[in-house]
Specification:
With 547 residues, the protein is of the alpha/beta class. Helix content is 47%, strand content 20%. The termini are far apart.
Length: 547
């Protein structure tokens, strides 16, 4: 027997013996099964000879193909990857569950895989391993918070960090050439690479599709990082060409910036990267802060002036009882006077760290309205507080002091927490919520959805109302999935004695469906657009009169 044959046999049986399994397969460089041995018929319904030459991912259920493809991408020489709990394809394996483990061997481009029947103990173990292995990248907002914490800690320890930004050229063309499977494989590989290089194993993000950021120790060479990403691009390109990856490293420069200025510079840098990619001209957070101040000095002054002079108006949109059509309360909405988009100004205020200043100004305007302009009506009004502000202890102290001067307004005010995805410290926010409730105020959680974060908020924040995100309302008549989610969310909230509001109701059919699911209140253009003055009429009669 030739040396090559001996080596091949050694690789196969060493790999087979590294884990207890029922079926062993070898996957060649073209992602086809080149060898199979074991209980193929028991697992897949056909013998091992019949599956040889087949694309290896076809063995698995479509929903799990990305998972097992990621195993191959992440596998290291002579180091086991897995075990993972997956489902086999319906046609080949009747959709049954199986345990999958993989390995790469020295001197071979092939990937070796074992597949076995599962039991309760192995399934639990595989799920725990899989949860540890399957990492994700942060989104932009989460990364900004993580990066800020990492930089603050580095400053206290005298450690030097850098921010590396990575941009894939011609993203749409690259994704089209690679196809969904290869792009998923590349995305999984770059996720693990960036997390492994980040300062804490997680401080990496996909700021925008194809644009990545990572905070890392200065000892990590950014050019080497770029070369590793280019290698991943080459490995996942079916044409074998790879694709262009641009990178830029921004020095953290911590000694010359305060914590607050570092935060501003970081936000500005990441926002510029999101817009411009690596063509941005920022070389350090220090230069980023100077550019930021220079570019926004006039705008910052304008925003501060508008806030200090309360130079904005309040508009009112009713929240309606879906059964009676009566107005339950009004949401107060800010509108800047002839100064462009209110939403852009609010986002800008958040970017420059002035969300709390703006929210205090809104509360002042709202209190003045209730005291002097509500014309004796006892209707409730909802005042928005951003998720960023409600985590600011100084903001809450200022707000609480203002409310203490007007305790008679408590029964007429609901505080609505917006942009709840920015909340990091749920315990602190819930503490503030309880103080407000003890003083007689009600609290509403805006933008409530079906994600795990929303359920965590509901568990940790003891609110009186939740407002279902308008994206569900828009799809409730056409998507059975979204309809079921709304129905279940409504039932869960009723069980917890929490009132539910559905926003963005524009059609009578949407209102009827929400009502049938037990949603008590609605808001949207069907009833009224935001108005300069509250309109107290019964909205059910108003809608009938219009129609």
């Amino acid at each position: 027997m030739s040396d090559e044959k001996l080596k091949q046999q050694r690789d196969r049986f060493l790999a087979f013996s590294f884990a207890s399994a029922d079926l062993f397969i070898e996957v060649d460089a073209n992602s086809h099964i080149s060898f199979a041995l074991g209980a193929a018929r028991s697992l897949t319904g056909i013998n091992e000879k019949s599956i040889m030459g087949q694309p290896w991912l076809d063995l698995f259920a479509p929903a799990d193909r990305t998972t097992v493809a990621g195993m191959k991408t992440r596998a290291k020489i002579a180091s086991r990857c897995g075990p993972y709990l997956v489902k086999l394809d319906e046609a080949l394996g009747d959709g049954r569950q199986a345990i999958v483990t993989g390995i790469k061997m020295p001197g071979s481009e092939n990937f070796y895989l074992t597949i076995g029947f599962t039991n309760v103990l192995m399934a639990k173990y595989a799920q725990s391993v899989q949860a540890d292995d399957e990492q994700v990248l942060m989104d932009k907002d989460t990364f900004l918070q993580a990066a800020k914490e990492a930089l603050d800690l580095a400053r206290s320890l005298g450690q030097e960090l850098d921010l590396t930004l990575i941009d894939i050229d011609n993203l749409d063309e690259v994704k089209k050439r690679l196809g969904d499977d290869k792009w998923e494989s590349f995305s999984s590989a770059i996720t693990h690479l960036l997390n492994s290089k980040s300062v804490d194993g997680r401080a990496a993000a996909e700021v925008k599709e194809g644009r990545y950021s990572v905070i890392h120790d200065r000892s990590i060479n950014s050019e080497t990082l770029k070369e590793e990403i280019s290698r991943l691009a080459l490995e996942n390109d079916p044409d074998g060409k790879g694709f262009n990856v641009e990178s830029k490293t921004v020095s953290a420069d911590l000694s010359s910036l305060s914590e607050r200025d570092t935060t501003k510079a970081l936000i500005y840098t990441i926002n510029e990267f999101e817009r411009k990619g690596t063509s941005l001209t920022i070389e350090s957070l220090n230069s980023g802060f100077k550019t930021y101040v220079s570019a926004n000095a006039q705008k910052i002054l304008q925003f501060k002036t508008m806030v200090e002079q309360l130079n904005f108006d309040l508009h009112f949109q009713p929240i309606v009882d879906l059964d009676s059509g009566d107005v339950a309360h009004f949401e107060m909405l800010s509108r800047f006077k002839d100064q462009g988009s209110t939403q852009e100004w609010i986002i800008f205020g958040e970017d420059i760290g002035m969300a709390a200043d703006f929210d205090i100004a809104v509360c002042e305007r709202a209190i003045n309205y209730l005291l002097y302009k509500s014309q004796g009506h006892r209707t409730k009004f909802a005042i928005n507080l951003s998720g960023q502000s409600i985590q600011n202890e100084q903001f809450f102290k200022t707000l609480h002091a203002k409310l203490a001067l007007n305790k008679n307004l408590a029964e007429r005010v609901i505080f609505e927490i917006t942009e709840s995805t920015t909340i990091q410290d749920l315990d602190m926010v819930n503490h503030f919520v309880k103080i407000l409730q003890n003083d007689g105020y009600k609290v509403c959680l805006d933008d409530f959805g079906a994600g795990s974060a929303s359920f965590q908020y509901l568990h940790r924040l003891h609110v009186n109302y939740v407002k279902i995100d308008g994206s569900y309302t828009k799809k409730i008549l056409t998507s059975e999935r979204d309809a079921i989610m709304v129905k279940n969310l409504s039932q869960m909230c009723r069980d917890l004695n929490i009132n539910v509001i559905a926003e963005m109701i524009e059609e009578e059919e949407q209102a009827e469906r929400m009502r049938s699911y037990g949603v008590r209140y609605g808001q949207g253009y069907l009833f009224a657009r935001p108005q300069a003055k509250p309109e107290y009429e019964n909205k059910k009669r108003a809608v009938k009169n219009v129609s």
